[in-house]
Every structure is written in structure tokens, then in C-alpha cells.
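[[Per-residue structure]]
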Amino acid sequence: MAGVYPVENVILATDSYKTTHHLQYPPGTSTVYSYFESRGGRFPYTVFFGLQYIIKRWLVGPVITESKIKEAKEICQSHIRQDAFNEEGWKHILMKHKGHLPLRIKAVPEGSVIPTRNVLFTVENTDPVVPWLTNWFETLLVQTWYPTTVATNSRCQKELLAKYLCDTADDLNTLPMQLHDFGFRGCSSVESAAIGGAAHMVNFISTDSIAGLLLIRNYYGCKMAGFSIPATEHSTMTTWGVLGELEACRNMLNHFPSGTLAVVSDSYDVFNCCENIWGTELKPSVEARGKQGGVLIIRPDSGDPATVVLKILNILGKQFGTTKNKKGYKLLPPYVRLIQGDGISYKTLEPILQKLKENEWSTDNVFFGSGGALLQKLDRDTMKCAYKCSFAVVDGKKINVFKKPITDPGKHSKKGWLSLEKQGNSYLTIEEGLGDPEKDLLVTVFENGKLIREYTLDEVRRNAELDIVKNSRKI
């Protein structure tokens, strides 16, 4: 049926085996306390983002109903093939709490840039009758790994772009637009595209992900978080035929006589297109458009990115001329730029930027687009995200809980109540309840069915911003 998610019942938004876990804790267990962290991975830090979406989407309000309990019981009994479903526990939540989840979630502020191996959020039950509830929602809450990893990947690329702008440009004005999200079509679903697209916009305002814009509008209070421009795809160019490439390009200039537009130009011979179509036949039109503030962005889409981008810059520099900025790096006229959207990732970006720098081209000449590598070529192990129990109360006795497998020291978990404190320029997770509550950076964001602390996109962006941008946009 249109408009129905595969899972709408929050009780069923969990792994199958968790439906039996209420029978497995020690008798007398009244509290289970767990935490989420990145245990390391590809990047040295995480940009924490996306928990608010999960909470607002799934946990806020009276989410447990009689009909949901009945549905979950029928499915679980048929699926597990044993009468193990905790109907009594869910009915207790329905009756005593009117369907609100008796949980408390504390988390670092969204957008926080936190070194790996630190606690990012904690979860505990607030009703001693349902201690199993804490880890029932591990499945759902751990999915914070995805927006957090995308936001981290995106910010690390922003750091690279800022570094080369600092070296080769007069200011950082283009930085918020330097990396464009091309990833909607490459995602596994519309929802993942929305979540990942929103995470990228923590760092940049350049996107083609309408799904991401809508998620931010609905869950982070920003009416318009990102921007795009008129642009061609290969079908709109190649339907003109090989002999019609000039007219296809002219058509774009005629239909969009002002503003910024992008034209994919490698349908046949990108170097010929840049030299003889844009740089000769249509040069007067491009220049005239530029006098009205228009910008033509030429998009190559094949070949070795560093080699192709440099060669095109040299061609366009010859045809349109160049100037030098205050740092001595070459700039095309402001009405001609490039966007490289093929093969862009954290791994490939720096070699391109370094090659341009070595050939005295400013980073300001080129924008970048990324799709699969930005939103899809990552998984939970990219940042080794995990959710583990660290504390429990059994028969009134407080217990520091941990795992310490001899086969993998990287999977050793933390003990006891946790807090996160900033010490100088560093962060430290304090274990076993020894932290100072006044210094704890973990904030209660959800309690007993209510969203306690809500973040706007503006707040998230401020938290995630690069220090060099916070201090000044002038280099």
C-alpha cells in the first residue's frame, strides 16, 4: 500500500533475538544502562548527528498501543515459534505510562566534533519493571551510525577543501558550496538518501538531494537548508546528436540567460567542447552572460579526475584568459568554473587539489560533486560504531558491566555510569560514575516519551563548523 513503511510498529523495529532478551537478564534486574560510541575507524573524530531524527520519528509520544502489542505478539510467536513475546511488559508500558516509553537518553549536542573512543549517548530505563527496554531499542538507536558517519566523511572533506583554499585562495567564501551531494540515486532507499543528504548539509549548503532538504525541514527546523542550480545530464545533451552538441550548449545559454548553470561537456570530446564550443563559438555569449553576473560551470564526467581537470583548466585559461589572486594562483574569469563530479571521495580529493596547487591553479576554480562515496561507500564499521551495556542494578546492587574479549582488544567496552568531559582541547570519557556532573557534556534529550532538547540545523552547523571558519572567513 502506498505511503506505508515496511515497519510502522516501533515494537517491531528491533532484531528478532531481542524479543527473547527479557528472559535472559539476571533475576532482580531493575536497571540496564547502555552507551553508544565510535571505537575508532577511518577518521579520527565523529560529527555526531541524526539521533534527533530517530527520536522524533519513532519514540516521541504514546507510541505503544493495544493494536501494536497484538500485532507484535502475533508476528513474534509465528517468527520465533515459541511463546516468548513479552506481552506483559509491553502492556505494563501501555497501562502505567499510557504508551510512552520509560527511557532516558542523554547525548552530546548534535553537530559536536568528538574524538573517537568517547561516549556519544547513553540510554537507561526509568521504570525498574522494564530494564530490558534499554537494549530493545539498540537496533533503532545504533542507526545513528549512518548520519554520523556521513557527516564525519563530509566534514573531513571540508577540512581538505579549506586547507587548499587557505593555500591558494584569497578567502573561504566558496567553501560552503565546494562539495555538492550527487548521491540520491545511489542510496539504498529514499529514507537513507534523506538521512545521508541531511547529514551532508551539516557541513555544506550545496546539494541535489531534495529528500535531505525535506528531512531537515521536518526534523531540524530549517525551511531551506541547501541549494542547487539548473544543470544538464547526458540525456539532455546527447539527444541533440554529435553534430548538435553546439546547439545543445547554446540552448542552455538561451534558456538560462542569467544566474549559475552547469553543463556536462564530456558526451563526446570534452577537450574539444571546452576549446571550440565554449571557448570559441559560444565565447561571446558566455562573456556577455558573465557581465550580467551569470556563471557557466563546465562538468567533465569521465577519465582520471586530476589529469582531466588540469587539462581543462589549461584549455579554458588559454581561451578565456586568467588573472592571479593575491597569493599568486591563477583564476579563470569569475563567469567560468568547473565541477568535477565523477570519482570524488575523501581518498581521491586531495590528489586533485594538490595537482592543481602544483600547477598554480587556485582551488576557487573548481567545485566537486560526490555521490556513492559520500552517502553509500561506508558502513557501521567505517567508524566502528557500537552500543554496549556498561551498568546495571540487580537486586539493588550496582554493577559495572563490561566485555573484554581476549581475541580483540579493540572491542573492550567501558564500565559503569559514563560522562564526557572536556579537558583543555581534548575530550575524555569518565567511567564508573567518577565524572563531575557539572562538567558532563551529555545532555538529556529524551525522557519518558518526550523530546527534552531539540536542536535546529543552525545550532548543529555551528557546533560542527571548522575552527578556521569560526574564527574568520578571511585567511
